[in-house]
User: Which sequence fits this backbone?
């Protein structure tokens, strides 16, 4: 029997099924950056030959996670407002976001994308912010799927105007 050529086989991993059950001794065949087969280790070994094999022992293969509401531009603010009293918008968040430069947003986006990739997130929806073109360029380079919005940063600017009139 002729085996199908692929680029990578990840062998001996765990698989989280649609029924939320764990199957052991599973393998994944990848060709041209696409998953072409997921099956028992023995089946993949029999049907595929790869130029690279990765041992997936103690790793779990599961559907990508989706973050339905995030703020990429606030990534650099993480940890600063955990113990703050109410009204953080006026005192902290609006001044912080209004001071961001395109470079700040790019760095914040790179950090957020890295954390999402490490946690298994494959898609996200951003609530919006300034310099979303910077966010978009980072997301494209990362391979994540996203839904970006500009609308909410307009609301932030209006809120900022209200806050600073007092």
Assistant:
């Amino acid at each position: 029997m002729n085996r199908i050529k692929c680029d990578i086989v990840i062998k001996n991993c765990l698989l989280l099924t649609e029924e939320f059950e764990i199957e052991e001794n599973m393998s994944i065949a990848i060709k041209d950056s696409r998953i072409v087969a997921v099956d028992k280790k023995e089946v993949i070994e029999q049907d595929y030959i790869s130029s690279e094999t990765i041992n997936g022992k103690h790793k779990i293969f599961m559907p990508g996670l989706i973050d339905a509401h995030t703020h990429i531009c606030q990534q650099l603010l993480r940890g600063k407002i955990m113990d703050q009293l109410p009204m953080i918008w006026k005192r902290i968040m609006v001044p912080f976001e209004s001071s961001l430069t395109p470079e700040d947003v790019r760095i914040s986006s790179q950090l957020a994308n890295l954390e999402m990739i490490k946690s298994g997130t494959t898609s996200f929806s951003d609530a919006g912010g300034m310099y979303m073109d910077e966010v978009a360029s980072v997301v494209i380079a990362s391979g994540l799927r996203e839904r970006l919005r500009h609308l909410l940063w307009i609301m932030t600017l209006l809120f900022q105007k209200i806050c600073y009139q007092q």
In short: The chain has two domains: 4-61, 65-164. The first helix runs from residue 41 to 47. The longest strand covers residues 4-16. The beta strands are 4-16, 22-31, 34-40, 48-55, 60-61, 65-70, 121-126, 145-147.
